[in-house]
Amino acid sequence: MSKKVTKEQIRAFAQSQGLDLVGFANIERFENAPKRMHPASIFPECKTVIAVTRRILRGNWRGIEEGTYWPTYTYYGYHGLLNSFFIPVGVYETACFIEDHGFEAVPYYPGVPETQPPAEPLRPDGVPAQVHLAIRIAGVAAGVGEMGWSKVFMTKKFGPRQRLAAILTDLEVEPDPLLEPNTLCDRCMACVTGCQADAIPHVKDGKTVKIKIEDKEYEWGDVDMGRCTLGYHGGDTQVSPFLHKTFPGLSFDVRKQHVSEDMAYKMCWPRTFGTWRKTAEDPSGYLVEGHAQIAKWGGGAGAGSYGIGGSRGCMRSCFDRIERCDKCDQTFKGGPFIKRDRWLLPCDVPPNPDLAGKACGVPDDTNPTR
Ligand code: SF4
Fold it and tell me: What pLDDT, on the 0 to 100 scale, is given for residue 357?
């Protein structure tokens, strides 16, 4: 095959493989990135970072918005298929297309370790393992979109409704133009109001994160990732009817928590994937049966994750609002997304008088706490 390939040919090919938006950043746009997040730490000869997106269907959230059905979001819109199949197939085929033209292409899966444990470099003066890109910033650098106030990645076509991946290549192409900061996000604060976990600071609080790419400064709210994680992954009684079912009498206000993202994962993950003995009180054998069942829908490609909160503020409130303001290219004939009063459960789960304060039913001589 001819060695000549243009970025428009790559973009067209990627879109023919199901990817929606495709942008190109030259490696110089990452000059301010720390080494552990720099594309050249993965591929030192990288000249171009191709950022790609695929939409999250608006309908993926419908069941959660109505408070009736959870699996669609995790299965189609998150780790079940979108992150683990729909996007990677397009990325992989596009990487094959680039390598067919004689350039190395590193398909980059954006599932990241949530922490960066200290590690020694494997090569003298090298970068320690566990490099990962800030995929949303790669999307900004490639001119695909910008960061919204709530730290979501926004595009003109879909608002906040997409997930990203990337391809690193030694092919050199002209980069796409950067978006002017605040082109898409107008600081309306609908995300702040809609986030039941109180994870997104108000613009008046002045808590921001800033980055600079070329001459442009992008800024967004410094999101409380502990509360965000609790809200999203099943640690928030306000948005999990499953916690209400499993833990009658529990009182937990996510808005008052001051925990790190890692601590929040420790609070949510084991409770979702863990098991417990089957008892008359809860014969399921899970810690939280509802969360465990939803997590089964998120197991695609072994990279299983799950969503309970369904991004109430940063996604649903945001795209509902920008669609109402005609600021999103994709429109819907059926009108606004939020059509009814929104549901929210209390932080305090009403106790079950038959269970409150009762012993666990295990004889004293086998109960190690007695
Ligand atoms: S709701 Fe969307 S557009 Fe409005 S401030 Fe939040 S991120 Fe920006």
Answer: 87
Residues with CB under 6 A from ligand 1: 148-150, 152, 185-191, 317-318, 321-322
Does residue 130 form part of some domain? yes
In a domain, 369, yes or no: no
Domains contained in the chain, number = 1
Tell me which residue has its CA closest to atom 6 in ligand 1. Answer: 191
The Cα 146–Cα 140 span in angstroms is 5
Whether 339 is in a domain gets the answer no
Is the pTM higher than 0.70? The answer reads: yes
Helix axes 225-232, 261-273, angle to 10 degrees: 20
pLDDT value for 359: 83
In this predicted structure, the answer to whether residue 365 has a pLDDT above a threshold of 60 is no
The CA distance from 48 to 167, in Å, is 8
Domain containing 276 equals 7-324
Please check the confidence at residue 213 and state whether its pLDDT lies above 90. yes
Structure tokens at 297: 């829908």
